[in-house]
Design goal:
Elements (H helix, E strand, L loop, with lengths): L3 H11 L3 E5 H14 L6 E6 L6 H9 L3 E4 L2 H9 L7 E3 L6 H10 L2 E4 L2 H10 L5 E6 L21 E2 L3 H10 L4 E5 L9 H15 L7 E3 L17 H19 L4 E4 L3 H4 L3 E12 L4 E5 L8 H4 L6 E3 L7 E7 L7 E9 L6 E4 L20 E6 L2 E6 L4 H5 L8
Parallel strand pairs: 1-17, 2-3, 2-10, 3-4, 4-5, 5-6, 6-7, 6-8, 8-9, 9-10, 12-14
Antiparallel strand pairs: 1-11, 11-12, 11-16, 13-16, 14-15, 17-18
Helix pairs in contact: 6-7, 8-9
């Protein structure tokens, strides 16, 4: 349990800024999803490792039966390093060169393509290897525009009005289309959005005779603060399983149901700890400036995402409103007019929902070091990434004599 006492002790031991992950929470989320779909004929959960790609997190998920979804060849290589077998790795890139796809084929992982050009090139070289296709269901859903990826204006997937061309390519190249895939977005609350997308995939799958699986993607909404609504996973699972089983019966064989959760599995497991460098006030604003910035946690600036912030050094102090800001030479504001217990310089602030798309989107902007990462598993804490040093910043630069 990542309570304030434990988090304070970790900040003292490992320093700040610091990412902390509760691996048992990740396992619980995985098991909840697995249990919800227990009546599916066959279920495969591909963890979307772009959310959090530390190899130790991958190993934890592998230990409970998860497979993995990769969007780059580097993620594929990382998953292999973590111990996943090629058969348990799905490679679902967007906009990559055929050169990268060839590398993935050579590594023996499962391939999904999301455009006609790549499909044709795949057929020219690998007509004997099954491939799945990513469909754009033309459904606009997600927490905001930047994470809504399943509509006609999105770069992702093949629109259904291009299916005749898919069939023409696959027929002329003797391709084996063994799966259909979609991903409509992230932070989707309404199960009906997923069910609507499922009907699109069912109609697409009917057009191909060698389908082995249907991949429904991910995007389930998690809670960011107390009382937040979340996707009703159990209701969705019941509704989709009924429809999936009916489709399998009409298709003539049992298929595998696949999901690609990322945020659902790891978001709530994570805390980000940062130390307050300065507290200063204007006539109307009190700023709390911390030893981190958009280089460590960009979601509030990039997505306008909400992260609950708690002063774990003074949890019972009088509540005041603060503007929590970073130390980057930009307007890197984490929260405006946010009620937090009274903050003093040197206090530790804890940011919730720091497990997904937080460290994985970190950078070295302003030549700042990336933070350390710690994993808690069965009550033990493990340093799973050391804090960077100036040597890490400089190691790939080549100095020339002028």
């Amino acid at each position: 349990m990542l309570n304030n006492e434990k988090l304070s002790a970790l900040a003292q031991e490992y320093g700040c800024p610091l990412y902390v992950y509760d691996a048992n929470k990740i396992v619980a989320q995985y098991q909840r999803l697995e249990n919800a779909f227990r009546n599916a004929p066959a279920l495969r959960i591909n963890y979307a490792m772009k959310a959090l790609s530390n190899i130790n997190i991958l190993k934890v998920l592998k230990s409970v039966g998860s497979c993995v979804d990769c969007v780059s060849i580097q993620e594929v290589q990382t998953a292999l390093t973590a111990g996943f077998t090629p058969n348990n790795i799905s490679y679902t890139p967007s906009g990559v060169s055929f050169k990268e796809v060839k590398k993935a084929v050579d590594l023996g992982v499962k391939i999904t393509v999301d455009n006609l050009s790549l499909l044709a090139q795949f057929g020219d070289h690998y007509s004997n290897i099954p491939v799945s296709i990513r469909i754009n269901p033309n459904i606009k859903a997600g927490g905001n525009q930047k994470i809504s990826v399943g509509h006609s204006g999105s770069k992702f997937g093949i629109l259904t009005d291009k299916l005749d061309e898919v069939i023409k390519i696959s027929t002329s190249k003797n391709l084996i289309i063994n799966g259909v895939h979609m991903h409509t977005g992230s932070d989707i609350l309404d199960p009906e959005v997923f069910l609507k997308g499922a009907e699109v995939l069912f109609e697409v799958a009917k057009k191909f005779k060698n389908i082995d699986f249907i991949d429904f993607g991910g995007g389930f909404k998690v809670a960011y603060k107390e009382g937040d609504p979340t996707t009703d996973i159990e209701y969705f699972a019941d509704q989709l399983t009924q429809r999936f089983n009916q489709f399998c019966q009409s298709y003539g064989k049992e298929l595998t149901m696949i999901f690609e959760p990322g945020k659902f599995l790891v978001s709530e497991s994570g805390k980000f700890l940062a130390r307050v460098n300065v507290v200063k006030s204007t006539s109307s604003i009190t700023f709390a400036g911390i030893d981190a910035g958009l280089n460590h946690l960009i979601r509030p600036m990039y997505y306008n995402a909400y992260h609950h912030i708690e002063n774990i050094s003074n949890p019972n102090g009088a509540i005041q409103n603060y503007e929590v800001v970073g130390y980057i030479c930009e307007n890197d504001t984490f929260a405006k007019d946010r009620p937090i217990s009274e903050i003093s310089e040197g206090d530790i602030l804890s940011f919730s929902n720091a497990g997904a798309y937080c460290f994985s989107m970190a950078s070295n902007y302003n030549s700042r070091f990336k933070p350390a990462e710690v994993m808690i598993y069965d009550g033990n804490d493990y340093l799973i990434r050391q804090r960077e040093t100036i040597e890490d910043i400089l190691k790939n630069q080549i100095e020339i004599n002028l």
